[in-house]
Batch of 3 targets.
Target 1
Amino acid sequence: MFNKLFKSLFNPWLVTLFTASFILCLFFGSFHRAAIVKAQTPDAYKLVNQGIQSYKKGDFYAAIQHWETALDFYQKNNDTPNIAIINENLARTYQQLGNKSLTLSYWEKVKAYYHSQKDLPKVGRILTEIAQIYSNSGQTKKAISLLCGADTLICQTGSALQIAQEQQDKLGEVAALGSLGEAHRLQGNYDLSIKYLETVNNSQNQTDNFAILNSLANAYAGRAQLWNLRAKSAKNHNSSKMNEFIQRSQDDYRIAIISLQKSIAVAAKENNKIAELRSHINFIKLAYQTVDSNILNPNQIETNIQQALALIEQTPDSINKVYAEIELANLPITNDEFTSSVNQCHQKTRLPELQVKQLFHQAIQTAKKLQDARSTSYALGELGHLYECQKEYKSAWELTNQAIWFADQNLQAKDSLYLWEWQAGRILAAQKQLNQALSFYERAYKTLEELRNDILTTNRDFQFDFRDVVEPVYRQLAQLQLELATSNNQDSVRHNQQLNSALTTINSLRQAEIQNYFGNDCILAAFNNQPLYQVIEKDTAVISSIIFKDKIGILLSLPNQQEYLHWVENKNQETLRQEISQFRNSLLAQQTINYSTKDAENIYDAIIIPIEKYLTEQKIKTLVFIQDGFLRDVPMAALYDKNESKYLIEKYAVATTSSLQLTDLKPLSSQVNRALVLALSQESKIDNKVFPELAYFPIEYGAIKKIFPESKKLENEEFAIQNLKREIQEKTYPIIHIATHAQFGIIPEDTFLVIGNNEKLTIDKLEAILRQSGNISNAVELLTLTACETATGDDRATLGLAGVALQAGTKSALASLWPVDDDSTANLIAEFYDKLRNSGMSKAQALQAAQLKLISAKQIPEINDKYDHPYYWSAFILIGNWL
């Protein structure tokens, strides 16, 4: 059920093109005829009207030509009122064409005029217009700033909503609220979005507003997707919450469906064909998403499809019509295949093949007629993809190259350019033209890298589709680079170049995953742009993994600039995943007498044995892992070498990092003398889940206080957000030690620390607290979390753990993959801090020493316990800076 409901309601690259709300054009988006004043001439008036008629027909370039001619006349006569009117019309038209810069330029001219006239209601409305442009181009923070500001309780002076309310401009207020709801929806703030949109929907004369009803449907559907993700996150640790989240998701889907049904009825009543068509398309997609939930009659989908097809014939040519034709042509036969169409082939389309091709050709013809490069690119590219799926590569290649050409003509179409470059690479690779394919993959990669910050952090809808439309570009390019590197006709120089290129691609994927996970406010600052061999020490090796469908690549990077690639081909993904799951389960069992190292041996043999001779030759002492997917779930320290009867940690110090480029590799200062200790040692309850007391915390704190005498403790009720803010503002703490339950879910909303008074502290909030304290965050060398719980079974949960140091703004994190409530934790932490403070060891070496002490527990009189079982020591992993 989960997988079928996770997909985004809309193809992400069409979100701002076809599903953007009609709020503004409905409220005050009608086109103005120039005012009849004495200076008016019949010719100018005629030009204005001709422009309006051209616009209504979708002939935007003709409309611009008419209005620019009229504008020349008004400028010669210094007719400022009519100049403002024409500029407003031009702004709306360029917005239809997707020309953001010209649209903003004309709106700024209009705003300046109404400022000069002290017409504040008009100024407020124009601010709303401008904010909508920023929202639709992904700059939602800028939009919210113009509409209201960051404070959701009181809008800042001079914002659109504040002006409308002060001037009692009800229409302007409704439009600003609606646009604010849209901006928050795009950010993923669905509760706030729904609050604003429901306010508009319930206001006088707005209950039959099809634009608001569409926006509400989008917001409720977005929140339903989020509930489904939270249900999956709760599946492994809170089944009652899982069922609650599923129910909430279905409730939100029902409201979304009702909103769209109302929107269709209202648009039909008003004879607004394009609005009715758009509502039908949205309804069809929502019906696909919810077919397994029995919310809708499956036959309803077919009814709406036929109604949408009929409306296509009745709707004047427009950009929206082009995208509607593309959407209908791409519908699969079943909801099982309802996913991004751009890189996956449906077994069968919903509509007959002849009708599908006819819709694509109509879309191409209309887009070209409108002289719109962006929509022409999409129509050509999607038809090319259809031929790609049919293995008609000649036609696919010709259409895809045309799509690339059109996308390259418009700066606003760069988000489509990478799709068609990627598609060209796939078409060539399918024909075994690997070197030519590599060229197009590299072009797609370059374009995507330029766009990455915008598309991964600004639109929550896009985050849902990351695994469909972004991640495969990186993976397929990396696989092609690695396969070319190992082909027989590659010389050693070319071999190393391809391996280096693959490492760069993998690193970019890691950064993209972190940005996608944390979303809107993820701040990634590169610390190291040097070649890898200049970053790592002479006794350190970096092991990077990347998972493909049929095999796993293991790349070893050594300090002597040598790199080696090993393919894990004798195990498919599912087999290795099962072994890792069994391995973790055996560790968690805590039963020394029954513990078998078999799974640990199998994983060691698959990953370490093929590269171990190189580690021995280079006298490597520290291994830094940059893991992929489910491999992040592996406590690498507990892998077992059956030949030497040793755990990996007995042979090497071990650390992990998300990306070397994002890791600050400055060594730990020897002047560390204090830690801020935050603890919740008493039992707590969050979302009906009980988190048990940490009975051994007093021992843990006693050990910390002995090593760092100047440490400060905030425990239980004192462990509150305000106290934390105050403490780190008053003093510098190189180490922040947190002894509380920490849960890492598959979305940031379910990644949190349990603090006093049964409250949550999210990683996002912790990061904000640290970063808002001036330069204090730069002094946080180490964040220690000793009672973490990472959800198993989903790669994103461990991604959240891997990204904790980055998002919290610290250089390193020491965290546990599972909570170990035992005095073994106090022993391990005490040894780790002691070695870190007094022996000159690196963090990785200090952790190794602490783990070795527990492994040797039975030989140490003061411990003499069962702590040699890897349950007690392998849970702890070092993330980020290992020095």
Target 2
Amino acid sequence: MLFVFVIYDLFSCTAKDKVPHCEPRTFKGQRGDMAECLAARLTAQEEQIRLLTGEICALREGLSRGLVVVGDAAASPVLESLRAENEKLRYRLLHLRRGLQAELELEEAKGTRQQGAKCVKAPQKTTTTTTTTNSSSKNCNSKEKQTNKRPDSNDKAAAPELKSGEKNKEKKKQDKAQGNSGVKELKPWPTYISDRLSLYEELKRENDALLAKKATNGKPITVELPDGRKVAGKAWVTTPYQCACDISQGLADNAVISRVNGELWDLDRPLEQDCSLEILRFDDEDAQAVYWHSSAHILGEAMERFFGGCLCYGPPIENGFYYDMFLDGEKGVSSTEFGDLETLCKTVMKEKQPFERLEISKETLLRMFKYNKFKCRILNEKVTTPTTTVYRCGPLIDLCRGPHVRHTGKIKAMRIYKNSSTYWEGRSDMETLQRIYGISFPDSKMLKEWEHFQEEAKNRDHRKIGKDQELFFFHDLSPGSCFFMPRGAYIYNTLAEFIRGEYWRRGFQEVASPNIYNSKLWETSGHWQHYSENMFSFPVEDDVFALKPMNCPGHCLMFSHRPRSWRELPLRLADFGVLHRNELSGTLTGLTRVRRFQQDDAHIFCTMDQIESEMKGCLDFLRCVYDVFGFSFQLHLSTRPEKYLGDIAVWNQAEKQLENSLNEFGEPWKLNPGDGAFYGPKIDIKIKDAIGRYHQCATIQLDFQLPIRFNLTFVGKDGDDRVRPVIIHRAILGSVERMIAILTENYAGKWPLWLSPRQVMLVPVNPSCEDYAKSVCKLFTEAGFMADADLDSSCLLNKKIRNAQLAQYNFILVVGEKEKMTNNVNVRTRDNKVHGELSVAEVLARLTLLKESRCRSAEEEF
């Protein structure tokens, strides 16, 4: 016998027919009724879950007996929907109760102030009778105490009196019922929170009704998974999370976010049409950014509840997240408050507050955020569409494009580790903001590993090492422009000479171009229209000039100053010219973000047919350089964006050549569809340092538009003198300043011999050997080594050797009477490896060979 079970849409049925519907007239005045209504709705839905679970069990029994199930046989998505709705109801109930408690405390505070006022006035009316005055004052205080009583009060008048243990249990019970977590926070919350929530709830009901209507009329859709499988769904009903559950509950539990048709998508946001679907875990870069963005919202909620200021921006960053807040007056944030903030964040995480997305008109949002001038600025200056989105978790509602994790409980471990002052949008003439940084992970083990990593990174900070080793410094009289001292300049020049040597081997021609250009050049290149605010410009006679922020427009002038032939191509022009960019003072950070810098900049002018071979040369160049430094690297091919310029056939041909060159290069690479620049595709390269951090330094970028803007042409093989070249923008080190910062931290100040600012230290055993030490030191200096002699007679021999090792001299050469007589030196390394006594000539020859070969472990290879 064939039994057919049809599972109805219990979720919609429950909402319409079986569950009490909550229609509060006002958020503030009807919170009690809403709480009761939500509690009733929660109870009714839990009953529906029990019934649904029973039906699922019956279905399973039927399946085990070979029965056929028709309809929505996969009942788990329905069950998940009910459970998700129940979670939302629980949190709404929790926050309603908290709101009621906050209002009660506000009312009591008002009552206290009123009674206090009566107490102050009473003596004026009864100045003739002291007894009356005291009596009046006593009555007033008595009333005040009665008004402010709590169920957990220690006042003996509280009835009935409970034992100590019973009091604690009763207090915890009542705190839980009222939503009191016991953590430090403002009581009551700022009034803008309840006003914001009231408007949001009203808009949410309207949106839910609209979504329900769309779901009713939803059409069947097909969802394609990464392995090629296709699953059926329903538009405006099926969610990525439901699809993940059908694949594997483990996948669903570990999912951070989804990618739908290449776009990041909330796991609980219904799919709208046929689509491709990927479920992303924390190990994906995009998923990490979403995870940290959601963590920033948790921090934002805690900051509002703790400080009560105005939130500004709260983005994810390369490793973690931050949130900016404006506080009235001279208030600031202290590191002593991190513990309380973390406790509040943990409370939010335990509550598993769902992230809700809502699209709202700009006009309504200006009303919602009228208390916050910064959000209003964002809406007026940044939002160019009629509507935009907000996300809610708990009492926090914030302007946000999203997407986010399903709920705050997905964040398992969080640490608040740093705070600073900054300016609104980095401009020193704007308001001062308080910025708080945090990090989060899916488990506590990862957080502990990160903390260990941070301690290691702190010890490697290039700013600290640069100061300790006397390499460079900054001065307020030239912000963002580094002063390289002799030893720092040695590193700077050695890097430049390394690249110059490779230029000669690879057919590049080094040029020198002006630092200052008329603004007409930048108008031609397009930088004046889109980049002028980042340029240092100034009037000269009747014109405006600017310091160059990049070399490419000047190189275009070099190409076009005379007719060019196909025989000259590829033309590879390299330039170490000084560049200036007007970075905001609030963003300047050591050598990693500066205003004055140099690049190992080069531009290759070539034909379309030469792109592939030139790309192979560029890739080989970067591998050669990064191997010397000891960096591994990642490659990403970024292809045509939606808003591209030029002929699509040219784009397709160029992208195919880039792909061919990457395949032949032999290193793994990834595709970043649509992430190219509007003027051409590119290859992005990220290097990995000694402690696992990734940095983008090198770039290889095709440009089809600059040759058009400058009307660059050459004479082709067929005599056509109007053939357009292609430009390849190429850098390996990138900014030399930034590369020095990365290398400093990568080596932790223990520079390899060829790059070291302290290569050789001569240590005389006694004053009689000082002249010999100086003569040997001179030999090494003349041979191109950074050599010194320690002639401080107040230090003992062992102290001198230890000082040299701590200063990171690669080799310490000890000379005594014996070495002086035989023209030898006794060699040891900074790691105290003793190589013994050798002739000066042999040591000089060995070190020269190690230096020229750019050996990374010269101390071991010696």
Target 3
Amino acid sequence: MKRTGLILIVLLLVSCISNKNTVRIKEFHPLWDTVRVLSNPGKGWYHHLLDNGISKYKIRNDSIFFSFPGMDHLYLRLAWSYLEPEEGIFNWQVIDTIIDKYVPLGYGISFRITSKETGKFPGSVNQEVAGVQYATPFWVVKAGAGGSVAERNGTKSWVPDWDDPVYLKKLDAFHKAFAERYDGKPWLRYVDIGSIGEWGEGHTSFSTKVPPSVEEVKANMDIFLKHYKKSQLVCTDDLIYYGKNEEDVKSILSYALGNGISLRDDSPLVDWYVQNYPDTWSVSHPWFYDPLYLSSPVVFELQHYGTVKKDGNWLGPDGSDTIPRFRKSGARIMRRAIETMHATYIGYHGYAEEWLADNPVLTKELANLCGYWYFPVTITYPKKLLTGLNTIEMEWINKGVAPAYNSFAIIFRFTSATDGQVFDVVVEDSGNRNWLPGKIQKERYDIELPSALKKGEYFMKFKLMEINNDVKNEVKVGLKESLIDGDGFALIGKITLLLASGCRKPAETGLWQIFESSIENRKIYSNPFADVSLNVIYTRPDGSKIEFPGFYAGNSLWKIRLMPDQAGRWKYRAVFSDKSKRMRGSFMCNESDVPGMVTLYEDNPIWFGYTSGKPLLLRSFQVGDRFFADTSNFITGEVWSDIHRSRFLNWLQANRYNMISAASHYLNRNSEGRGKGWNTPDLWDENAQLPVPAEYEKMEKVLNELAARKIIVFPFSGFLGRNADYPSDPVKRELYLTYTISRLASYWNVVFNTGGPEPTLPHSPYLSREEIIQTGMAIKELNKNNHLITVHTPTGDSEFRDEPWLDFITLQGPKTTNRKELYEGLLRNHTKKKGLYAQETLWPGNKYHPAYTNSDIRKNTIVATMAAAMINFADMNGDSSSGFSGSLDTEKANDEIHKIYNNTLDFFESVDYYKMSPMNEIADNGYCLALPGKEYLVYLEEGGMVNLEVEQGEYKVTWVNASNPKEIIDGGLTTDGKGFTSPRHGVDWFLRLVK
């Protein structure tokens, strides 16, 4: 019997090995179609329907227009006087007729409402008085607006004074009404700031020739920023640079881009620009568009097509013949101008029928080239998928000239080869916003296949989709049409689906990384957050157990999540508290490159370390409220995106930082100049009084990137943040804390902050001492993984230093250049069992701090570290949301101070700082760290003499130049630690004694 049992075990093992899953890699390149036009959302051609007059460029033949490849929207440019002929009396029908006809057919609309035109009534303007043409309504003039009459080619036109208070007041009232009617409509692509200059282009070349001032430009921009909160604003490049010096150009450009205003160029292939800007393809200011295009759509407008032809700048079919005087073709100039600008929307500025007849091939080419143009490169997937969690990897390339500005979902469809059963898996974010032009980007998609699916063979397909509230648009990719089915899905191949049982290979994760699995429960609960719990017992490889709750993830889906602390095979058993459903499984935990969860250094807990036993010298940097946001600021227009965050994090790592202190995290500091307007995760629904799973997912997406980059996060706002949404009711607060910790506890790189900033600020408290203590104790109780817990405190000593739930002290201050005062203030708050985080102690440029010199920065960093305090550094220019720390624009970083800070910390990492403790009592000068009988380190800020009380023995003596640690001077040997004098050159020195 024993022998038979052995044979059976061997057969089972062989069976499992023979069924070992392998992956398929499919190459898409042979299946690409680079000719078929992909009409996709948020990009494409536009048609000037109203331009230089309301009859200009009318569509003569709808059937031809409807067949125009890649036509996205109609651009309506018309004079203000058409829409408000009398004050407060609006003639919306002029544009509503067009909207009502074309929007239902799938076309979008964009607007430019002008205050100055060069043509005549009727047509270009709607009013003529005493031979003067009025694009701005004449009633504005009668109301007292200042302006002048300019004449060109016998035509007189009224030109407003662009900052006249009456003009601005009436313009403001008009755009208030216009925005109330049209702002935020799903079909509205953008609104041009068209209230200055000829045709709204921002220049006065055909009237006064007086350039609008910086103040005039900003005053007009402010009106649009005030009223259009939901729509993209665009201005012409002329508005930025016409008649301006370099300083003014930078000022206006910075103001525009900082407020989320994008740009357009209306001059490509204008003959003068072709002559004068040949190397940049008639684009006068190419630097305007890079890096703008990374965050906002750029608009290209061709010179009037008829004029281009008349000038001799468009020759041959599709403009492909060479222009003799320029030695390049018109089509090539246009193509390269679009590439130079990274344009998303492109216009030919003429009659659709004429353009399309002349340029049938080029029209299709440029329809694809503008904006984004996606191609799958490869897909890697298991030949045999299992019910439960599966991983698919895809490589993508963007062959367009710009990114997309919305996130697209990727949908995987599984169709049974036997009975046609269809099941879709939606991954809400395909990662497409990171697919920059010309770069291959790899994405990993974790997909969950429900256990209810039947095993067997399935056809696996995919497609991209824009899913935005009620709007759903298919996003086509550059594959042969024969691969695309009637629902827009592209075939990947045939897979075999197996049920998750028997010899299934367990899921895998890394040590200190995240294991996660899902369980579907379709039972209806009135409140799934509170009516039921998902209880999970995990069994470690050594047989010990840990209990940790799962959490509700929305849409009948629950998740379990764990950070494993042992390598080997883990098992788990999950059951709902009402016994409605249960599951069990296992996973393999492999060694990883994560050194462990951030904690206190076990052998000397005044320092920080990892659970692996390694020390951790924190290099922390304060980052502003925008960091966790996923879009630009919807109030101020300040530009921000995932791309900007990644660019900042690249800088952070290059400068050797390993930690950030993030404002508006976990919660948004919803106040002016702080978190207001930033779309950071809003974890708690104030109205429903419930957590919002989708908002947690937004936060976790960023935390995942930080964990992958080995960056630790201090949440400046914490669980209960100032000016933030969090529950006040004790029962709801317990629910919120439990839910949040169940999701965050599996991140090795997070610490817990009870609340901040400054919850007990004397003149403005928002939490009582008792509330903080109760919350801290509640967090401690829920804190199964023993994450470090702290609380942010006002300037001065911490009143929570000795609280049993507090693992490290977070200080604001001392803010001083007096090193003795700094050292003593830090030491006063130390204990022998807790770390010290000097969170707001050295913030150069902050208005509440002294003016630190570079020498102060270096010396303060040294003295704080000698006090065993970890400094959270900053780079500001005003309050804590200012400067580089606020903007996170790497161009604004003060590289010198970051170099000083990190070079100083490099010295401490070269010695065994973590073994020593502050012991100033054994030195009669300077600041001292010591491990008595082993090692001593003294910092002499002004050099000089020092005597140490050392334990018996012989020590090697070295001097290290504190301003240049590479300079090391042998000081011989000592047995008594007496009579040391620093070298005569230099200023400040380290004395080091090692046994």
